């Protein structure tokens, strides 16, 4: 995919709508313990978000989940809206928020070293350990 695409979605209750511009059709899975605790399983997200516009931002609660990142969710219905680095240079948006039949491609799994043994994806993906993720983002040395 060479051009960016625009996608829209909303939280469960409709209090927050979002529009995202993405630079890739790729979906990534994060297996870190925080993502699994946040959503009950791996986070399947768009990592190539170049812009995110939120309408109803006063309905968004942001939780600082680590020294370098925070997670946003609707304060009414709890829908997960984004994971972002506090530096503002990276947003991940759950693909289910904006999936309206687009031809997504499952391409990457991160924190593969924290993935529990009770599930596995059949897709062939680029897999990165937590240390490799931190090296790529210069975010620190633990999750």
Q: What keywords describe this structure?
A:
143 residues; mainly beta; 3 helices; 13% helix; disordered C terminus
Descriptive report:
This protein has 143 residues and is mainly β. It has helices at 33-39, 95-98, 130-137, and strands at residues 5-10, 17-22, 26-30, 43-46, 49-55, 60-63, 69-74, 80-85, 91-94, 105-110, 126-128. The strands form 2 sheets. An 8-stranded mixed β-sheet has the order 6-7-8-9-4-3-10-11. Strands 1-2-5 form a 3-stranded antiparallel β-sheet, with no helix packed on it. The protein is globular and about 35 Å long. The model is unreliable at 139-143 (pLDDT under 50).
**Overall spatial form:** globular
The total of beta strands comes to: 11
- Structural class by sheet pairing and helices: mainly beta
Order of helices and strands: EEEHEEEEEEHEEH
Question: Summed up, what is this model?
Answer:
By secondary structure, the protein is mainly β. It has helices at residues 33-39, 95-98, 130-137; strands at 5-10, 17-22, 26-30, 43-46, 49-55, 60-63, 69-74, 80-85, 91-94, 105-110, 126-128.
List the helices and strands and how they pair.
Elements: E1 5-10, E2 17-22, E3 26-30, H1 33-39, E4 43-46, E5 49-55, E6 60-63, E7 69-74, E8 80-85, E9 91-94, H2 95-98, E10 105-110, E11 126-128, H3 130-137
């Amino acid at each position: 995919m060479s051009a960016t695409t625009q996608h829209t979605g909303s939280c469960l209750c409709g209090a927050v709508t979002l529009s995202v511009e993405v630079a890739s059709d790729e979906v990534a899975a994060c297996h870190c313990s925080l993502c699994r605790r946040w959503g009950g399983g791996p986070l399947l997200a768009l990592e190539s978000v170049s812009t995110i516009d939120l309408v109803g931002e006063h309905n968004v609660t942001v939780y600082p989940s680590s020294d370098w990142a925070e997670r946003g969710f609707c304060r009414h219905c709890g829908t997960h809206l984004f994971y972002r680095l506090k530096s503002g240079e990276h947003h991940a948006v759950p693909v289910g928020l904006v999936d309206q039949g687009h031809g997504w491609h499952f391409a990457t799994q991160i924190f593969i070293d924290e993935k529990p043994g009770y599930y596995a994806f059949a897709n062939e993906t680029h897999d990165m350990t937590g240390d490799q993720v931190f090296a790529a983002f210069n975010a620190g040395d633990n999750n």
